[in-house]
Amino acid sequence: MASPSIVVAGIGTDVGKTVASAVLCEALGADYWKPIASGSEDGPVDHEVLETLIEPRSGRIHPPQYLFKRSLSPHIAARLEGVAIDLAMLQPLKTERPLVIELAGGVAVPITDTLTNLDLAAKLRLPVVVVSRHYLGSINHTLLTVEALKNRAIPVAGVVFNGEELPDTERIITVMAGVPNLGRIPHLEVMSRETISSLARELGPRLRSEISRLD
Questions:
Q1: Count of domains forming the chain
Q2: 3-class DSSP state for residue 69?
């Protein structure tokens, strides 16, 4: 069974969503799209980073629908540039392969004055992979993220953990949230196509199995 397209949501900022997205793209043979991105004035943005991390195939990495200069919450970055983000414009792309869609930050991040990433995830109607990085408070943030998704009837494929192995933390999160542990991405000193490909081979069977059951 082919894997479905998925949404990647973090429990906050800088938890490793983009690296997790790269691993998922390779494990699922998927395209990549981040509908809303910001921070272009500070250096490469996420879709440009993905170009260095996954195997290049024609048309595999899709540019954002909205790209802002400042590294700010989308609703602020858009307002500063005189742009109104229109949820109707954020339709899932038509692709030949599955699509990995990365959200901009956590699920409660505002994208307008009245809408958040939860509204976008609900509109996309795709399974969500939650990315969690271990830190003091991450259990709370991960459980709240999963609960918020479930309260909107958004299917949660499971949690990908980032960083050092903390079995007790990973166990309590998956038990209390009632979702699968999709695997762990260790701290990477060097990110490259080779390291991403290796992680995709390691985590791929579990990722494909758990995500495909939601199709």
A1: 1
A2: coil
